[in-house]
Amino acid sequence: MDFSGTVILAGPAAPVHLNRAGTRVFGTLALQSWEVLRSGAGTLAEFVVLGSDAVALVPDKLPLAEAAGLSAAGQTALKMCDVAGIKPGRGQRVLVNGGSGGVGTLACQIVRAMGAEEVVATCSGGNVEMVSGLGVDEVIDYRAMAPLPDHLARTYSDRPFDVILDTVGIQALYEGSPSYLKPNGVYVNVGALEGVMWTFWCWAKNALWPTILGGTPRRYVMFSTVTNGRSAEKLADMVETGKVRVVVDSVFGMDAVLEGYDHLASKRAKGKIVIKIQMTDPSTPS
Ligand SMILES: NC(=O)c1ccc[n+]([C@@H]2O[C@H](COP(=O)([O-])OP(=O)(O)OC[C@H]3O[C@@H](n4cnc5c(N)ncnc54)[C@H](OP(=O)(O)O)[C@@H]3O)[C@@H](O)[C@H]2O)c1
């Protein structure tokens, strides 16, 4: 769904800042477009046709490969912070579960850029150094500290978090959260590591099961990101002002695209996986 590239042709209604051939743009095809899903007409292509409201200008110094990894993951991280109510001056302490993934690397930085006072992130041991470089205050190796909810209960019960941003989707982390998330805190999850059907079931249970009947007494929010050009512009601003950078795990050519997907499916990416599309016919499409 994500892309970056240059404008080839613009329609008459395109805004002036986007309508010149050669302008560098990035964004995301709307996942909600059933036509896109049905036809498979995604961004793994030389040319992509889409509305100007889905794109934003690539900041001058940002390479196209990094811009390609910014949009959907960044907009998801941005929305997680928005729904969690991250604001400057509130002294909020935030846990980012999965700080090393595509969404997580951006969430660690965006939550800080939006004003969180303290950010703690989790990842596996091999990624601790990379995640430390994202400006977080503390990184927890979730394997060395397994089970993570027990470790968090031991370490943070006397100074619980205001917000937990789960970019992985670990139900036990939510169920254990009363021991390390404030009673008025919020748990925001976007991940589905434990399986899509299970995650949907947990979503319903966590959001609807009353506390008096045994439900976990902490607010749970889950959503599917609706991407748009305005949020992409906010991300571009954060990159331009040096608050956010895109961590690119690897760039694959079109000839190795399946290798790229295998790497994605391994769930071991350190940041974003990018596919570089080679132009086979540079003539302008009509
Ligand atoms: N709701 C939405 O709108 C939305 C939008 C985008 C993505 N998503 C979902 O969000 C999730 C993350 O996406 P992504 O692109 O960031 O994925 P990703 O780049 O593959 O990152 C996966 C993350 O999960 C961590 N992880 C893997 N196995 C784990 C385990 N057993 N316990 C704890 N952490 C583990 C990895 O950490 P280590 O490698 O360090 O172990 C890594 O940080 C996916 O489920 C995706 O479908 C949802």
UniProtKB/TrEMBL annotation:
One GO CC term on file: mitochondrion
Task: Please give the InterPro entries that the UniProt record associates with this protein.
Answer: ER, GroES-like_sf, NAD(P)-bd_dom_sf, Quin_OxRdtase/zeta-crystal_CS, YIM1/Zinc_Alcohol_DH_Fams
Could you tell me the superkingdom of the organism this chain comes from? Eukaryota
Q: Which residues form the Enoyl reductase (ER) domain?
A: 5-275
What CDD domains does the record point to?
Answer: MDR1
Extract the PANTHER family matched here.
ALCOHOL DEHYDROGENASE RELATED, RETICULON-4-INTERACTING PROTEIN 1, MITOCHONDRIAL
User: Can you name this protein?
Assistant: Enoyl reductase (ER) domain-containing protein
